[in-house]
Records
---
Amino acid sequence: MSHNAADRQLIQDAIARYAWGFDTADFALLGEAFTEDATSGGVVTGTSIAWGPMRGRDEIVAVLASIRRAQTDQRRHNIGSFLFEKQSATTASVRCYLDLTSTENGTSRLVTGGTYAADLVKQGETWRMSRLDAVLDGPF
């Protein structure tokens, strides 16, 4: 496995583009995090709640934008504890933890926790996710 530290930072940046894009309703930024043919989906542990698979950047952005626009609170994705499972010069697979917080009417709370699993590819000098899947610990 390659251990290029600069690429690892850029891989984490791709996941941050997704989080910042969603949280700030900057859907162009969110879209930059994904390849054109990306897939995404998720499940809530212990429930029948699931979403996806969404196929393609346009569908991913459209679905996530619809979800975000329906929310009245301010969400914040707090992502960390990155575990690189594979990494080459042009591909990577990574898992990380998620704590999702919400602030509404001056009150902040933890909405849910969980994990993300992502596959990424390097396109030119930019890393993008070709797959992002979520496993949440509880409903959001």
---
Amino acid sequence: MPAITLTGVAKSYGGGEHAVRNLDLTVPDGAFMCLLGPSGCGKTTTLRMIAGLEQPTAGTIAVGDRVLDSVERGLYVPPEKRGMGLVFQNYALWPHLSVRDNVEFGLRMRKVPAVERRARAEAALKMVHVDAAMDRYPSQLSGGQQQRVALARMLAVNPSVLLLDEPLSNLDARLRLEMRAELKRIHEESGATIVFVTHDQLEALTMATDVAVMNEGELQQVAAPMDMYDRPANRFVAEFVGSPPMAIVDVGPSPAGLAGSLLRFAESRVPGSLEGAQCSPTAVGIRPEALRLGPPPGATWCEEAVVEAVLPAGSSWTVRLRVLDTELYAVSYTPVEAAPGDVVTCWTERMHLFGADGARLSAWDGAASPAKGAVA
């Protein structure tokens, strides 16, 4: 299927408030695109506009050369003619129909012959590993199984695009993990284009081929998951993507304390790189995973820190530190021997600098140093 393209798309519900504003977004053919952002950022509205359940108040939505919505031309293609499947946050299964009949429902509406309908339903159920329960009713299934049946119902009609609106939010942690793996497998096997809405950044990072972060109706960044994690476009993306979130230290007119220490290190890596208004950082960010404890290896930023708390999480330890009167968090994947009140050395080879407009100016790490004013 050709790419889905949104150009200048906006959605307003009146009163001057925009749920989505001036959205330019391309979903490549065969991509697993996650729309990620906090509640109220416009991601579900965007999904519903792609599906045809909402009409934009401005802009164009197209699939390849086929225009589905155009406010300027007064063009609108109804949902049933878009060739897309939509899975809602709730399962929306018919309680009086068996699993098989639920999956066949869409095919029945399309008047698919009975033999073909049965074969396609059974194939879809087998793909999501619920074929053993096809004669049961929804009330006899677990939440995870019901979610798989809802997916199978969409897969059975062979949609060119599968739209998922936070389908895992009602599941417990174990089922969510299982369904993430299932969705990734289904995407690889079916080759369908998937647009997935979530507020859970872990879901986006683990499943998607592309992530689009939104905030207050505006697109903040589109990138591959690890590119977004390593090179966030601005402060919002840096703080939203990652758990625990990136620590952001604001820089005042006369940087002192932790901010001054970090900036002196950044300047020492590339002398003169912080000169000029366009390169003047107003904040410095450090990811907890990049903050290490112990003797620093070579030329890295380091300072003494007081341990305030050690929080074990099974496979990792989160440590709250007080560094030059500023609170920072470090994540260690080896046991932490320090106790609250101990003084330790913390160090990092990587930090992110942000300008007055919130955009990331650069990143310094031990492997390479960016050119003057460059965005790494």
